């Protein structure tokens, strides 16, 4: 289950999407996520599906690897669908005991499931095709105007990048601790939900200790290298927009225009 979480991982391969400027991918991801919450009909979600499928195809990342991250939010997805299905008022379709499935509830549940799925997969496309260093540089460049109001842009970007980078590391550490405790007789599978939650407590304590130790080692390593923040620092590989990036912006503009048109469709 833990190995199925793909957020924060980088998939090494050669593709057009991998070579794009990280700023392009960050802007595209933000616009795609916003479009998912703006569109409200079948044509809008069909457009989003086609756009996402095209990006996955161009990224050369296997689709099976891409959807592995969906297993981690399956419970949240089912819970969201059930709540929208039974708690949305409207025209009744099916009555089950005291619960009623309405036409509006069915529509909302389907759209919410599609929206969450596209959101996770779309975010995974960005993280799987962008290295943490490039992600940091891209976020710092996009947030640069905030420096005028004394926002620590470099530090914020670095923290977000480190957080993403630590996700697969902590998952691997969790897997090792779990296997070690299973070998000593621990049981994480049997019992009801409350018992399973209690069985996770011995797992969380060593995990937190490991996380704090890694954070302390990272801080000491940065201090040993005389890290003093982003002021005055130069970059070995400065970000420069290329022809393919302007082409990507043009495609993104067409997608945004098409998404707006779908909203206007009655």
Model description:
Its main location: membrane. The mean pLDDT is 83. This protein has helices at residues 16-19, 22-38, 42-59, 63-66, 74-87, 103-128, 132-142, 153-183, 193-199, 201-224, 243-264, and strands at 92-96, 99-102. It has a two-stranded antiparallel ribbon with strand order 1-2. The chain contains 11 helices and 2 strands. The chain is mainly alpha-helical and 266 residues long. The chain has 2 domains: 1-130 and 238-266, no CATH class; 131-233, no CATH class. Helix 3 packs parallel to helix 6, helix 3 packs antiparallel against helix 11 (243-264) and helix 8 packs across helix 10. The two termini are 42 Å apart. It is 67% helix and 3% strand.
Radius of gyration: 22 Å
Average predicted confidence as pLDDT: 83
Distance between the termini: 42 Å
* Helix content class: 55-70%
The residue ranges in which pLDDT falls below 50 over 5 or more consecutive positions are: none
Query: With helices defined by DSSP (H or I, 4 residues minimum), what is the helix count?
Result: 11
Content of β-strand: under 5%
Number of strands: 2
Class per helix and strand makeup: mainly alpha
- Count of all domains: 2
The side-by-side strand order for the widest beta sheet comes to 1-2
Shape: flat
Secondary-structure element sequence? HHHHHEEHHHHHH
Most strands sheet: 2 strands, antiparallel
Family: Belongs to the energy-coupling factor EcfT family.
Function: Transmembrane (T) component of an energy-coupling factor (ECF) ABC-transporter complex. Unlike classic ABC transporters this ECF transporter provides the energy necessary to transport a number of different substrates.
Organism: Eisenbergiella tayi
Subunit structure: Forms a stable energy-coupling factor (ECF) transporter complex composed of 2 membrane-embedded substrate-binding proteins (S component), 2 ATP-binding proteins (A component) and 2 transmembrane proteins (T component).
């Amino acid at each position: 289950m833990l190995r199925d979480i793909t957020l924060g991982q980088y998939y090494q391969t050669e593709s057009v999407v991998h070579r794009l400027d990280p700023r392009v991918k960050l802007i595209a991801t933000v616009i795609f996520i916003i479009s998912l919450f703006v569109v409200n009909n079948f044509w809008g979600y069909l457009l989003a599906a086609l756009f996402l499928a095209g990006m996955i195809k161009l990224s050369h990342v296997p689709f099976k690897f891409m959807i592995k991250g969906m297993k981690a939010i399956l419970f949240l997805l089912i819970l969201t669908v059930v709540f929208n299905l039974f708690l949305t008022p409207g025209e009744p379709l099916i009555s089950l005991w005291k619960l009623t499935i309405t036409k509006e509830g069915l529509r909302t549940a389907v759209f919410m499931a599609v929206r969450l799925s596209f959101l996770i997969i779309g975010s995974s496309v960005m993280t799987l095709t962008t290295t943490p260093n490039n992600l940091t540089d891209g976020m710092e460049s996009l947030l640069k105007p905030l420096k005028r109001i004394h926002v620590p842009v470099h530090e914020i970007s670095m923290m977000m990048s480190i957080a993403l980078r630590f996700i697969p590391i902590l998952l691997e550490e969790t897997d090792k601790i779990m296997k070690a405790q299973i070998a000593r007789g621990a049981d994480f599978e049997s019992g009801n939900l409350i018992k399973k939650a209690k069985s996770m407590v011995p797992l969380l304590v060593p995990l937190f200790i490991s996380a704090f130790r890694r954070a302390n080692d990272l801080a000491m390593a940065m201090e040993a290298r005389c890290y003093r923040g982003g002021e005055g620092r130069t970059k070995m590989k400065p970000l420069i927009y290329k022809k393919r990036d302007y082409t990507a912006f043009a495609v993104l503009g067409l997608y945004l225009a098409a998404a707006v048109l779908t909203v206007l469709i009655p």
